[in-house]
Amino acid sequence: MKSKFNPLDSESQHKDTVVAFFNSMFKVGELAEFAKNVFQSKGLEELRSQLTSAGRGMLPVGKNTYEWFHGKPCEILSPGSKGWQKGKLRIRISLEFCPDEPEIEETPPNEQPEISEPESPLDDLRQLINQNNHQINE
Questions:
Q1: Cα separation of 95 and 92, whole Å?
Q2: Can you tell me the distance from the alpha carbon of 55 to that of 57, in angstroms, rounded to the nearest whole number?
Q3: What's the start-to-end Cα distance of the chain, in Å?
């Protein structure tokens, strides 16, 4: 069975949802904020270091990490495009949850589908026997 992770929106819908890990609990909004703070303080510098050591130049980190989470000016070049496109890039930290057991949707009693018994090759034979018994009893 394929697991389906669903995003936990830490800024609105799920910000007050609580996540428990063995002996600690966090609201989704708090957990996302902690992850964002760690990434801002150490993650961008580590990314810059990795890109530099891979010979890809230096990532412009600077002091203002705010831009990385709200939109850092950049340019992109997509296959099939007519050229470079200016815009902004942002980093989003996302929390996702996959339940162990999928939710079961309950259908109201008046809307429950009729469950038909599977057809059996013996149904025709049963019907003939019932007809013969009915004719004998008459």
A1: 10
A2: 6
A3: 56
Nearest to 71 by CA among 44, 85, 52, 90: 90
Q: How many CB atoms lie within 10 A of CB 15?
A: 15
Handedness of CA 7, 10, 14, 18 (dihedral sign): positive
For 108-135, the pLDDT digits (tens) are 666 655 555 657 767 777 777 777 776 6
* Torsion sign, CA atoms 66, 71, 73, 76: positive
Predicted confidence (pLDDT) per residue in 79-118, tens digit = 888 888 889 888 787 888 888 887 777 766 666 555 556 5
* Residue 85 phi, psi (nearest 5): -120, 125
E strands, the chain, are: 6-8, 18-21, 24-27, 72-76, 85-89, 95-97
Residues 30 and 10: their CA atoms lie apart, in Å, by 8
Choose among 40, 13, 44: nearest CA to 29.
Answer: 13
Q: CA dihedral in degrees (37, 42, 43, 44; nearest 10)?
A: 100
